[in-house]
């Protein structure tokens, strides 16, 4: 999955089952994790937790800017690009327009952009739920060649019109930024104003968000965080996507506190009707209409994740518990999902083991590496994991995913910090235990 304003998950998969827990936020273990992340140069960002509209926890960690002599510590008001979380803002405005009778879920894409493939059969519903079949333009090799340069709507539409569809509309689902860039254009056409102004009028001002807007060139003196990537143990400034490109798919800048308030307002009936919210929550083939449904044992949450350049973000709302949590990061070599999990578990009273980031000096034996090589599966998990050897290095690849270089900790134990993965091979049989997100799953060699 490309890392440009897509729904981000570096994890191989996430499963889980948990019992009922107490509900009292304990910040000490979250503070310990954030301190460790900063000290080991694993993440910089901001986290906020709210219950029933009352903020329980807010902490910025790391730096907004850290370039040579210029160092600006992050603050609670530091603004971050939030990538695909923007899709929830866009979906909210689309449902407002539906309530205003300006379109329906069945309105064909051809009403606005007849030049796009399958425009007569693609509907607003298909775009919202990633059922359109329109190819994700950020997956194209050409994307990296123009991502940092200003683009016009005409240029973007021309590219989208030239892309071959991935499947027939409505037959299945596949995540595509193309869908929400188009929905952003539709918001502009129906409101007769730029997306930035529509966002301000229909969401930001309506519920009193203080640090949320359509992004532009990043300016640290305006409390905007710069993106950084890990390079030889230091943070190196990373490229910025030009914000003329992502539009309704990934243009929003915000803070965790604002994101929490947005979710509370959305679920509190301040932005759309109960019927519209129910439609946004309804999941088909893994996707709602702008919202994603995620479970934590018997607890259900709704929200979205985001990634653009080196920024990562995630937000959750648990309706039954009235718990809201959001995290933003401008640098990370450790998953934001793990930090969010630590915060959730702290609230629900579940123990959380702090990760260990010390570099290992262990060199695996060649015979062990050869023993690990192969393809592993679990009948209850919809992916296989292939282990390969590259010299003294073990590499892992899940079905349809990128190759991960595993770090050897000790005999039969490997990790991949960026996804919070630990793999423990069985010395007596051809299998391994994959530990991720507090869940252990056995994979057996085929």
UniProtKB/TrEMBL annotation:
The keyword Hydrolase applies. One of its GO terms (molecular function) is hydrolase activity. Residues 46-342 form the Beta-lactamase-related domain. Keywords: Hydrolase, Signal. It holds the Pfam family Beta-lactamase. SUPFAM superfamilies: beta-lactamase/transpeptidase-like. The keyword Iron does not apply. Residues 1-22 form the signal peptide. PANTHER family: BETA-LACTAMASE-RELATED DOMAIN-CONTAINING PROTEIN, D-ALANYL-D-ALANINE-CARBOXYPEPTIDASE/ENDOPEPTIDASE AMPH. This is Serine hydrolase. It comes from Hymenobacter properus.
